[in-house]
Amino acid sequence: MTVDRRSRPDTTRPAGPVSTYTEWDPLEEVIVGTMRGAAVPQWDVAVESCVPASARELFTRSAGQPWPRAHAEAAEAELDAFAGFLTSRGIVVTRPDPVDHTRSFSTPRWSSPGGLYSAMPRDLLLVVGDMIIESPMAWRSRYFEADAYHRLLTDYFRRGARWIAAPRPLLDDDTFDAGFDRETPFATGSYATTEVEPTFDAADFTRCGTDLFAQRSHVTNRLGIEWVARHLDPEYTVHIVETIDPYPMHIDASFVPLAPGKLLLNRNKVKDVPSVLDAWDVRVAPEPAVPDDFELYMSSPTVGMNVLMLSETQVVVEAQETALADMLDGWGFDILPIPFRNVMRFGGCFHCVTADVRRRGELRSVV
């Protein structure tokens, strides 16, 4: 499926405080997340659809409480070191404001014993051109996650960026399908989220100039994808990537455009590559290096392919993912290995923990 809003040829906009069109143009400014103040989320149907079943006991017992201290502190140390690494390369790094996610909150319809974290700005903020879009996230624990970024977003807006927020969802019980197909949602169309209101995580979208790619997942419904397509400028086209993932949540650990003409793929999760990419070199990621006994609270081991491009040739890769690094090296990329396995416990890697605010480049078609 393609949602086509294109009505005029390629457009070039002057670079401002926010300007990014692809996943690979030279990175100039980025938001890096933090684990400070993070909390264990409440176990519910939306969470159950996306995280390993082994996490249920911890989430049920410790909802609203801090994560195991040693793991959270190790992850924060890696995030701080990563932020320092980017700064050392001349990239402007900003961080979200401190938030205590262990505080309970409620709406008139439901309550939550706490939030989640500010570790993954990619999940929340979709940056397209000079516009930042706040996502209407489907997890109740993430309802107020944007608060940590409010000061940053206000500053970008004051300096000329466009800033919009999708309608905050009600997240009533009818937003979720407790009987969703846990084995083959891609085959049955049965997901944890229904179509009663738009929901999407920004990380279910990836950018290739005038073309964006999105997936239907347990947190992103088709109404959410349609909302994004309608609010983008007319030169953009949104393509839907069909998946075969029983736990779909975030496209950037399965369908990863690295540079013009180069796509990294998790063949166990993606059914078909959209035909507009027929001319691209598509390569399958190797098996991840995460040991079976390494505790991952919120992701699968394949999150290691969640790399970050600093330019068309420079890629940040988790230091222990040597098979992936070797494959990318042989594909013509310069490898920048960074230890990040403790961060991976919490549901993301380099792409997830960043929101690239400015990349040096122009809007163009690359497909």
Automatic annotation (TrEMBL):
One of its GO terms (molecular function) is glycine amidinotransferase activity. Residues 1-11 have a biased composition (Basic and acidic residues). SUPFAM superfamilies: Pentein (SSF55909). The active site is at residues 201, 250, 352. The keyword Lipid biosynthesis does not apply. One of its GO terms (biological process) is creatine biosynthetic process. The keyword tRNA-binding does not apply. Keywords: Transferase. Residues 1-20 are annotated as: Disordered. Belongs to the amidinotransferase family. This is Amidinotransferase. The lineage of its organism: Bacteria, Bacillati, Actinomycetota, Actinomycetes, Pseudonocardiales.
